[in-house]
Specification:
- Strands 2-1-3-4-5 form a five-stranded parallel beta sheet, sandwiched between helices. A five-stranded parallel beta sheet has the order 7-6-8-9-10, with helices on both faces.
- The protein is globular and about 55 Å long.
- Helix content is about 45%, strand content about 15%.
- It is α/β, with parallel strands linked by helices.
- The protein binds 5-amino-5-deoxy-1-O-phosphono-D-mannitol.
């Protein structure tokens, strides 16, 4: 049932192009507009939403962080994102114009379930983004958008994450479409680009051999740091989480701009630092700033592992290892930049002799608070 792969995780990483395509299936009309009939929340209610709150745990929380960028940019509705386990304990402010999005692969995560119950008690509408048909979280929500990634068996989430991202983009774009924001043209072009995501993920998967070799060479590294800006920040957090849970290594993700406020003190000779570089097109200021961050850490001895778009030549002089990803609109980059980090963690853990499908101390679904 592992389909010829040694581990479910490898199989699930490889399934990502299809999983992403399945999440999109039937949701983009021939006219290029989105149809999310299953949403069951009337457009009129969506037009009146004045705040979005995303709650989730672990990897799904990282998808939520990315959703915030997309929702605020395309809809101009303020969006908060919070780990579900913290949410209800701070007495969050919500009412019937609040849309709460609960993201969960399993649909059984107790922290997320308790957060959404709290939200509904306050009168908020809850939309679940979930991979498991008929599970508790969608059953207790006002509406559900299924990710259709197929069963995810490995404890470390991979294809569920990419499809959660796609579902979040669809919700953000749909809200933008329904509310008719000034980003109309950008929204239609992003919808088109999303359709190309499965091919781009496939392309990245085809270039992973050097990433595997690099991961094997780092099996004895004491720690790995991950840096990113904008949507690259949650990607960095996700890369670090994967390495923690699979390789049992000290791994940390930072917003690259925070480096100088403390973490740069961690940099020492030979420390591997993975940097997720935003596109040089679009918000190019972000790109230039991260190139300076790479220069700074390299000058202090870091071994730089740079994930950058094809054609981005500015990073070349400072990259000890360069991992290329296809060019995408800034907000969609996590769909391609996360893939090398999954492969990296899986290979590094395997090189250390760990059982990647069943990491120690972890369960696939956490049904206690
Ligand atoms: O089933 P859920 O998406 O609600 O699970 C949330 C987290 O427990 C989960 O993403 C966890 O962080 C994964 N093991 C990460 O790989």
């Amino acid at each position: 049932e592992k389909g010829g792969y040694d581990y479910f995780m490898l199989k699930e990483i490889a399934e990502q192009p299809k999983a992403v395509a399945d999440t999109l299936l039937g949701r983009i009309g021939t006219d290029g507009r989105l149809t999310l009939d299953e949403l069951r929340i009337p457009d009129q209610v969506l037009r009146e939403v004045d705040k979005v709150v995303v709650v989730a745990c672990g990897t799904a929380f990282h998808a939520g962080m990315i959703a915030k960028y997309a929702i605020e940019h395309w809809t101009r509705i303020p969006c908060e994102v919070e780990v579900a386990s913290e949410f209800r304990y701070r007495d969050p402010i919500m009412d019937d114009r609040t849309l709460v999005i609960a993201i969960s692969q399993s649909g059984e995560t107790m922290d997320t379930l308790m957060a959404l119950r709290h939200a509904r008690e306050q009168g908020a509408k809850v939309l679940a983004i979930c991979n498991t048909n008929g599970s508790t979280i969608p059953r207790e929500s006002d509406a559900v958008l299924y990710t259709h990634a197929g069963p995810e068996v490995a404890v470390a989430s991979t294809k569920a994450f990419l499809t959660q991202l796609v579902a979040c983009y669809l919700v953000a774009l749909y809200l933008g479409q329904v509310r008719g924001t000034k980003w109309g043209d950008e929204i239609s072009s992003v919808i088109r680009e999303l359709g190309d995501a499965p091919r781009q993920v496939e392309q990245v998967l085809g270039t992973m051999e050097p990433v595997r070799a690099l991961a094997r060479s780092l099996a004895d590294a004491p720690a790995v740091l991950f840096l990113g800006r904008h949507v690259g920040h949650p990607v960095a957090l996700e890369g670090a989480l994967k390495l923690k849970e699979l390789a049992y290594m000290h791994a940390e993700g930072f917003a690259a701009g925070e480096l100088k406020h403390g973490p740069i003190a961690l940099i020492e000779e030979g420390l591997p630092v993975v940097v997720v570089v935003p596109s040089p097109r679009g918000r190019s200021i972000l790109h230039d700033k991260i190139v300076s961050n790479i220069q700074e850490i390299r000058a202090r001895g870091a071994r730089t592992i740079v994930i950058a778009e094809e054609g981005d030549e500015a990073v070349v002089p400072y990259a000890d290892h360069l991992i290329r990803i296809p060019a995408t609109p800034t907000l969609l980059q996590p769909l391609v930049s996360t893939v090398p980090l999954q492969v990296f963690a899986c290979e590094l853990a395997t090189a250390k002799g760990h059982e990647v499908d069943q990491p120690r101390n972890l369960a696939k679904s956490v049904t206690v608070e």
